[in-house]
Design goal:
Layout lengths: L4 H12 L6 H6 L7 E5 L15 H10 L1 E2 L1 E3 L5 E3 L2 E6 L5 E6 L13 H11 L4 H9 E8 L2 E6 L6 H6 L7 E2 L2 H4 L16 E3 L9 E6 L23 E5 L4 H9 L5 E2 L7 H6 L3 E4 L6 E7 L9 H10 L2 H8 L6 E2 L26 H10 L7 E6 L3 H16 L4 E6 L1 H7 L13 E7 L27 H9 L6 H18 L3 E6 L3 E4 L2 E2 L14 E2 L3
Parallel strand pairs: 1-12, 1-13, 17-18, 17-19
Antiparallel strand pairs: 2-9, 3-4, 5-6, 6-8, 7-8, 10-11, 11-12, 13-21, 14-21, 15-19, 15-20, 16-20, 22-23
Helix pairs in contact: 10-12, 11-13, 15-16
Length: 536
């Protein structure tokens, strides 16, 4: 009789879980070091510039070492963070911001208004909300060392919301010398003004990275509230260990070698819940929408019929089973605005069919003139759920005669290669699977996945002028009903030109030792302040 994965895992634990943990990890873990937290994140951190990429693990890194002008509280309302106070002129076109006392860079120099101006301008090159701000701004300039202004051509009532938005790439404030780099060029230095400092001496690419408490950080006096309020660091050090094998990571968690595992295997949730020392915790109650990004610049998906074919091909229920077997954690999603946002709707969703429609997909590829061009799917092997889905996607395409092949790599490799706009024979790509917060998809002004402005759009680079004209109206409508009406028109266009394809919605709990508490649960960011570790 073949052993199931669960039985095999239990047998391995019974035989001695510590033997599954890499020796370097065992050697570094000493009894009594209770103010050091060890975490295994969802992937290896390859890109350290949180403006250059919208990857969530880079946003978590950004939240640790950088600070923000504003942050959102637990009710998603913007609150001042680096800003001590701000004023709006009578004509509602000039905002004046004053920085609070005690802000300093990790290199010992003070944070200045010039740093903020440069950071806003760089963020404005790539973030949808920042691009909107730069279009509406007549000037962004330093007034004195601690004061800067944003002057607008016309009033923009959502300006503070844009500055505080938590959808990556977030507005993390960098030193002027770093923020002066174009957003298309990665900043490699890791000096911020946030509550943690990056420990260069202990950085071991591909193995672990280390953050130390910034002893000179001055938190706000308000209580911690979501990502707002006082960022109180209650541990001395946080180590992100890279353990690609999920069983090894689970063994390390159960043995107490690590404290936090961001992506536990879905088929082991019940095992985690039955362990008196472990807990499952959902940090983002709204969940995530899985999707396929398609390269609209290269054949065959430069033809809209080929993109529509993929839309009809997808069997959402099958993809969700492949990613998260427990049905209580998954659902279908047919709105580009997410499953449960205020503007989710059912406009132009006649393509959805339970089980998908392979014959319709095959016919649409034929109409597109598909002639056997290679379709390369970037396959993140260290994100196991997306790896399963990538294999299912390749198989579904091959079954209807598409020359699809997987390009296996870790998620860090995906985040690098997806920037290549060239053909597949020159290192380009055709498709990759990613996910986005369901909550974030309720705002097309700030979510990169909801843009269709060509070269300025997110990876895949969809381009539709009519859709973009509607998206730009979002900033000026005032009522929810007006936004719902806009959302319906935008979605009708999106599912015609197919900016991407949705695979379903899932909730992904983290696993932790019960001795680790105080983890703040908000969409997008997993902050490391506020958490604490009980003595062993």
């Amino acid at each position: 009789m073949a052993l199931s994965r669960r039985t095999l895992f239990k047998t391995g634990i019974a035989a001695g879980a510590a033997l599954s943990v890499p020796s370097i990890l065992r050697a570094q873990t000493q009894p009594g070091l209770d103010r050091t937290v060890r975490m295994v994140k969802s992937s290896d951190l390859r890109v350290f510039d949180p403006i250059w990429t919208a990857t969530n693990i880079t946003a978590d890194h950004g939240a640790a070492i950088y600070d923000t002008l504003f942050s959102v509280d637990a009710k998603f309302m913007p609150q001042p963070q680096m800003v001590s106070r701000w004023e709006l002129s009578d004509d509602k076109k000039t905002y004046t911001f004053k920085l609070r006392d005690g802000l300093g860079w990790h290199d010992g120099t003070p944070v200045t208004a010039s740093d903020c101006v440069a950071s806003i301008r760089r963020w404005g090159q790539v973030a949808p909300g920042g691009q909107l701000l730069m279009e509406r701004a007549s000037d962004i300039s330093k007034k004195d060392e601690k004061t800067f202004t944003i002057s607008l051509k016309d009033p923009l009532g959502i300006l503070i919301d844009l500055l505080a938005d938590l959808t990556p790439p977030c507005l993390f404030i960098m030193r002027e010398k770093d923020a002066s780099h174009p957003a298309s060029e990665q900043v490699t230095t890791k000096i911020g003004s946030g509550p943690f400092k990056f420990n260069e001496a202990l950085a071991k690419p591909g193995a672990s990275i280390t953050y130390d408490r910034n002893e000179r950080y001055v938190p706000r006096r308000e209580p911690s509230d979501g990502l707002a309020g006082g960022k109180i660091v209650k541990v001395d050090r946080v180590v992100w260990d890279v353990i690609a094998d999920q069983q090894t990571a689970m063994a390390a968690l159960q043995a107490g070698e690590i404290d936090y595992f961001e992506s536990p295997p879905a088929d082991l949730y019940s095992l985690i819940e039955s362990d008196p020392n472990l807990a499952l915790q959902v940090l983002d109650q709204a969940g995530w929408d899985a999707l396929v990004r398609i390269n609209l610049l290269q054949p065959p998906f430069d033809n809209v019929k080929a993109r529509q074919a993929v839309l009809h091909l997808i069997d959402q229920e099958a993809f969700m089973r492949a990613m998260y077997p427990d049905p209580k954690y998954v659902d279908v999603v047919t709105s580009i605005f997410g499953k449960n946002t205020l503007v989710s709707n059912g406009e132009n969703t006649g393509w959805y069919k339970k089980g998908g429609d392979p014959e319709k997909a095959k016919e649409l590829f034929k109409q597109a003139g598909y002639a056997g061009q290679k379709v390369v799917i970037l396959d993140p092997t260290d994100w196991h759920e997306a790896d399963n889905a990538s294999q299912l996607l390749a198989a579904a395409l091959q079954k209807i005669g598409v020359n699809a092949e997987l390009a296996p790599m870790d998620w860090g490799g995906v985040t690098t290669r997806r920037a290549n706009k060239g053909p597949v024979e020159n290192g380009g790509w055709s498709m990759f699977i990613t996910s986005e917060m369901d909550f974030s998809l309720g705002n097309p002004l700030t979510d990169p996945l909801l843009t269709a402005n060509g070269d300025k759009a997110w990876y895949g680079w969809p381009n539709n002028d009519d859709y973009e004209a509607l998206r730009h109206k979002w900033a000026d409508v005032e009522t929810l009903e007006e936004r719902k009406a806009l959302a319906r028109k935008m979605q009708a266009l999106w599912w015609d030109f197919v900016g991407d394809v949705r695979l379903g919605k899932y909730i992904s709990p983290i696993a932790r030792r019960k001795s680790l508490t105080g983890i703040i649960g908000v969409p997008a960011i997993v902050p490391m302040w506020n958490m604490q570790k009980a003595p062993a």
